[in-house]
Amino acid sequence: MHRENASVTTPVLDVRGLAFAYPDGHQALFGVDLHVHRGERVALLGPNGAGKTTLVLHLNGIHLAGAGSVAVSGLPVTKANIKEIRRRVGIVFQDPDDQLFMGTVREDVAFGPANLGLRGAALDAKVTEALAKVGMEEFADRPPHHLSFGQRRRVAVATVLAMDPEILVLDEPSSNLDPASRRELADILRDLDVTVLMVTHDLPYALELCDRSVILDGGVVAAEGRTVDVLSNADLMRAHRLELPFGFDPVAAAATL
Ligand SMILES: Nc1ncnc2c1ncn2[C@@H]1O[C@H](COP(=O)(O)OP(=O)(O)OP(=O)(O)O)[C@@H](O)[C@H]1O
């Protein structure tokens, strides 16, 4: 195969046979296969305790595979590759306060690219660009703890975008947002030119943003398909403890997208 062809077909995220047990012996993943291709937005669904967070923590090497493998654009997630992997995989955790710790928004967004060696005007431009992508440029000089929760989540997204990640991984991006902030974040995410894996219990959000959904349950991929097909399969939904909001019709909602 030619090099060009190989790069076209290499998934951004390639998880194969991933198994993992915590130090206390609890096995959380039993052989997960997951592939995400460039430009896709994929939702990772599943009940509490399914293994979603455990899987996400493998994507940037916070956990290392017990068995199987994880690769990001062809680069295996190993201790030796950790710095480049953490540039390639931007994880936005559920609580923005886990990733905002500097005195100003600007310093928080600059932290990652500065670590990669960016300085001066190039660093300033990168920070401005990342804040613009989430509509937060005018907050650059504010302390993060003076911002609303929704604004802090947007800044957390910017800290990751400033690294030019190959894949943006979002853990429950709509949690604790009021309806307007939830919609604004959806608009921002839809406009980004980046591959996305989104862990969510907010099924309408998954439908709105992700063409494809993967259900993780019991530490394995239990099903995957077009989000509208997954959400309208009542037997599948029941089997994996997934419930739509009362009265929500995924087929009708998909028709309006
Ligand atoms: N540090 C840990 N030590 C031992 N077991 C753990 C640890 N963290 C998670 N687990 C267990 O691993 C399993 C998967 O947990 P995980 O947090 O990955 O699920 P999840 O799908 O993210 O759940 P939720 O939707 O509630 O966030 C659960 O049974 C959980 O109790």
From TrEMBL:
Molecular-function GO terms, alphabetical: ATP binding; ATP hydrolysis activity; ATPase-coupled transmembrane transporter activity
One GO term describing the cellular component: ATP-binding cassette (ABC) transporter complex
InterPro entries the record matches: AAA+_ATPase (IPR003593), ABC_transporter-like_ATP-bd (IPR003439), ABC_transporter-like_CS (IPR017871), ABC_transpr_CbiO/EcfA_su (IPR015856), Co_trans_ATP-bd (IPR005876), ECF_ABC_transporter_ATP-bd (IPR050095), P-loop_NTPase (IPR027417)
Any one biological process term the GO annotation gives: cobalt ion transport
Membrane topology field: Peripheral membrane protein
The UniProt record lists the keyword Transmembrane helix: no
Subcellular location: Cell membrane
SMART domains to which the protein is assigned, alphabetical: AAA (SM00382)
Keyword set, alphabetical order: ATP-binding, Cell membrane, Membrane, Nucleotide-binding, Translocase, Transport
SUPFAM superfamilies: P-loop containing nucleoside triphosphate hydrolases
Residue span, ABC transporter domain: 13-243
One of the Pfam families matching this protein, by short name: ABC_tran
Family membership noted in the UniProt record: Belongs to the ABC transporter superfamily.
Functional description taken from the UniProt entry: Part of an ABC transporter complex. Responsible for energy coupling to the transport system.
Protein name: ABC transporter ATP-binding protein
Taxonomic source organism: Nocardioides luteus
